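Below is one protein, fold included:
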Amino acid sequence: MPLADEFEREVTGIRVSLTDRCNFDCVYCHNEGLGDTRGPMDPQDDEMTTDEVVRILEVVHEFGVEKVKFTGGEPMLRQDLEEIIRRVPDGMEVSLTTNGTFLPGRATGLADAGLDRVNVSQDALDPDDFAQLTQSGAYERVIEGVEAALAAGLAPVKLNMVVFEPTAGYVPEMVDHVAVHDGLQLQLIEYMPEIAGHPEWAIDIDRVHNWLTERADRIEHREMHDRRRYFVSDPEGQPTADLTDGDSDGPAAGEGMVEVVDPVENPHFCANCHRVRVTHDGKFKGCLNRHDDHRSMGEMTREEIRATFRDTVANRVPYYGEYMVKEDGEWVINDDYIDRPLPTADD
């Protein structure tokens, strides 16, 4: 039976950061809410060991956690990634978010180890634009990585694109790209200046929704997170928008799927959040936006992990309206909320 927080949200998923190292230096990176902490590319002493990662997964699986997503930094800098995936508890869905540069040569091994699906960060299709955004010249390697993932049977491959002023102009090309390439889907992720900085880069995400409404053949509304999925075909076709509720079986033959992830000022998004996070140095984290609730698991005995997990779930926060409030047009932390006593699982 999954643990539920005080807002009746059951925790069924976990995101585990395996490292804060990365071979890219993306201009928008918030490193899973930790800020820009990238350092040397060599393995760091504070990173969790293989056994510690597996032990955490085994414990949270006891509490009904059904899904794990491995993140970073760049998680494929961990040479033990295949072993970690192989040792994930039976029945737990395994996904990975990566920049894709290490997928050539490793995608098949990851799939054989038990990886179910992969998200690849890709914000532009032009090599020069890509280099400017990522501070990397690895564009061709990323394209090869996507192809390797598809060849390994990890379809659909989701391309993650952060939408902000430097990338907004690339959206139509990326949408056309997934419309004509089988096995690809696109996630357009709203930029979150309250954790990534540069508020001047934020755009009105309705601009994207309005354009996609005109571009799409059909539209699916997911009530739980108040998200929309846009199904698009070859741009030479004649799209007609058709808004329906509920989940579909996914894109039909000849269609691509585009989903907008828009958490800012979307109360449904956080109200239906069912995941917690683990930092690369072994701390539970109840919310992406919070920096005040990193809870150490001590020596990571099973009992310490259980107790910390219970406390983390008990202390999860609601939507920004309570933890974060807007003052003069900017998100600021609500001090009244922070000053309240932290609840524990026994409260």
Notes: Residues 215 and 239 are 6 Å apart (CA to CA). The two ends are 19 Å apart (CA to CA). Confidence is low (pLDDT under 50) at residues 238-247, 342-347. The longest helix spans residues 50-62.
